[in-house]
Write a structure and sequence with these properties.
- By secondary structure, this protein is of the alpha/beta class.
- The chain folds into 2 domains: 84 residues, 3-Layer(aba) Sandwich (D-Maltodextrin-Binding Protein, domain 2); 126 residues, Periplasmic binding protein-like II (D-Maltodextrin-Binding Protein, domain 2, 3-Layer(aba) Sandwich), CATH 3.40.190.10.
- Helices cover 31% and strands 19% of the residues.
- It starts with a helix and ends in a 10-residue tail after the last helix.
Length: 229
């Protein structure tokens, strides 16, 4: 990482805590920075949160599916099971196959929160992980639908994987629309530190906001703070 080159005596260690609250590690002192997918609550005043990027969440269908776009309400109806056939969304008269992601991991908990559907997703036809398996399943099933990190989805579309990312509320699922806030399914990537942070921790957060740090955000399949079309 470029930060280590700027600070030769520093080593940055990243620990993935999927399904575990990273703020607990910050509180107990085993981490200097926690990365979460939400802004801080008013009662979390002992910490400082800095948004360093965004994660878009895309609704993914087979490339041969006639459906091109949906509304946010239709996404809710789709994943709650209220909508059961594609013709209700302008597609063929065929039953919808929901392919879920693992509960409590990846983009699923954030999508549940955004749609006010925590614990209410329809069971669907199984659970797939990781992303590459979701792409494989959707590309091989005309009637399937799932959800995925938007940047990863865009990357797979660009190399010819036969999937489509649906526009929502007439807004295309593109990184520029995620960074601007026009695309509705996004969550912030927030770096949380103790207040006040140590000089070195503050330097790292500042680095992530700068050009080189924003490149790192992009490399990790997140959306930088500013993206131009």
């Amino acid at each position: 990482m470029k930060f280590e080159k700027l600070h030769p005596r520093v080593r940055v260690r990243i620990a993935v805590t999927d399904g575990v609250d990273p703020l607990a590690a910050l509180a107990e002192g085993s981490a200097d920075i926690a990365v979460v997918g939400r802004t801080l609550k008013p009662e979390e005043k002992d910490w400082t949160g800095t948004i360093v990027g965004w994660e878009g969440i895309a609704i993914m269908v087979n490339a041969s599916n006639r459906v091109q776009e949906v509304t946010l309400k239709q996404v809710t109806d789709l994943l709650s099971g209220a909508v059961k056939t594609w013709d209700e969304l302008g597609g063929l008269e065929a039953r919808i196959t929901i392919v879920n992601r693992e509960e409590g991991k990846g983009v699923r908990p954030y999508l549940e929160q955004l749609l006010n559907l925590s614990g209410k997703f329809v069971n669907g036809k199984g659970v797939v992980e990781p992303d590459k398996e979701a792409f494989r399943v959707i590309s091989g099933n005309l009637n399937a639908v799932s959800y995925v990190n938007l940047s990863a989805g865009v990357g797979n579309v660009s190399v010819g994987v036969p999937i489509r990312l649906l526009a929502i509320n007439k807004v295309d699922p593109e990184p520029a629309n995620v960074s601007s806030g026009a695309y509705p399914l996004r969550r912030p990537v927030v770096m949380v530190t103790k207040t006040p942070p140590s000089p070195l921790v503050k330097a790292f957060v500042d680095f992530m906001l700068d050009k080189e740090g924003q490149k790192t955000v992009l490399e990790e399949d997140f959306v930088p703070l500013v993206v131009t079309k």
